[in-house]
Design goal:
about 210 residues, alpha/beta, 8 helices
């Protein structure tokens, strides 16, 4: 079978929203990033637990993203997926809820699981029905409250041994991207672009070129 043209391959880049944002400003910024690079998925990751605020943000970002065939998932609030018309959920506590959430949302929803640095947790989440596994942080301090970073060998081992897609997130510096990108199906960018001093569009383009 001939190799696929790189242009035909799905983008490795997924986006994680800031924990707080002003909706009109952020939606304009997000649209500019969408215009600049190919994006595979958007994760809504607001720190608030207020459902009205979450649904209001979901409505705007879903409309913007679905117009470009980009799915939108939400961190942890799986009970809002149907109400907000989203495509799925990203669970931050490993395999614990995967089986129940999969049963609740059905086979067509995206269900992802963040598993820290644990291969065992990742395999358990996969067995429970997760569509992808996320490991991180890729560098120390890359995720709030997390300590030691995941070893690059974890991504290499996973890509060689497990068919389930693997995502890297947290502290994705240009340097670490060079060592893990080839072993990851997706790379989740959050503060790496939203807080870049050159701006989100410039950062997204730079990282896209690195890949």
């Amino acid at each position: 079978m001939p190799d696929q043209d790189p242009a035909d391959l799905p983008s490795k880049l997924t986006l994680l929203t800031p924990a707080q944002f002003e909706l009109s400003d952020y939606s304009a910024q997000l649209e500019a990033v969408y215009d600049a690079v190919e994006v595979s998925c958007l994760r809504l990751s607001l720190v608030t637990r207020d459902e009205e605020t979450l649904c209001r943000a979901a409505d705007v970002l879903r409309s913007l993203s679905h117009a470009r065939d980009i799915p939108v998932i939400i961190d942890d609030h799986y009970r809002l997926v149907a109400r907000a018309g989203l495509d799925g959920v990203h669970l931050s506590d490993g395999a614990r809820k995967v089986r129940d959430v999969r049963k609740l949302l059905g086979p067509d929803a995206i269900v992802g699981a963040f598993c820290g640095t644990s291969r065992h947790s990742g395999m358990s989440a996969g067995e429970a029905g997760a569509d992808y596994i996320s490991f991180g942080p890729a560098t120390a301090g890359g995720l709030l409250g997390d300590g030691e970073p995941v070893e690059p060998d974890v991504f290499r081992w996973w890509s060689e041994m497990i068919e389930l897609p693997v995502v890297a997130e947290g502290g994705l510096t240009d340097a670490i991207l060079g060592s893990i990108a080839q072993d990851c199906d997706f790379l989740c960018l959050g503060d790496e672009i939203w807080q870049d001093p050159d701006g989100a569009v410039a950062a997204a383009r730079r990282i896209s070129r690195l890949l």
